[in-house]
Amino acid sequence: MTFAAFSLLALWGLWVLFLATMNLKQSKDAGQLKGFALWAGYTVLAVGLLVDLIVQVIVATILWLELPRELTVSERVARLCRDGHGWRLSLALWFRRTLLAPFDRSGGHG
Predict the structure, then answer these.
(1) Which burial class, exposed, middle or buried, applies to 54 when counting CB atoms under 10 A from its CB (0-12, 13-18, 19+)?
(2) Could you give the CA distance from residue 16 to residue 37 in angstroms, rounded to a whole number?
(3) Hey, what's the torsion of the CAs at 95, 108, 20, 26, to 10 degrees?
(4) Which helix (H) or strand (E) holds 92?
(5) What is the pTM of this model?
């Protein structure tokens, strides 16, 4: 597998886990996530954090051509949207507007 294919697959997997996590958060906030579903949701969160860390260290480092300062890709995107310049800012804004904010109803990614 080429690095480009790995990167696309890793970013897609991270996004799917982000979507699942946001849906689980909404259910938990509404008091609908209990018992086994709550436990299973925490396993999704744990896998998501592991994938996020891997993507942050490997893929996002190459994508933004900078070493990570944060633990997660979302934190990097937030920093670059706040303090970034040029193409790094443009890329971070695209990630936030296209992949994160529309799916986080709490507003945490917008």
Answers:
(1) middle
(2) 18
(3) -150
(4) helix 86-94
(5) 0.91
End-to-end Cα, the chain, rounded Å: 34
Yes or no: say if 12 and 59 are a contact pair by the CB < 8 Å rule: no
**Rounded Cα–Cα distance for residues 64 and 94 (Å):** 13
Domains of the chain, residue spans: 13-103
Give me Rg for the CA atoms of the chain. 15
* 44-70 pLDDT tens trace: 999 999 999 999 999 999 999 999 999
d(CA 38, CA 108): 21
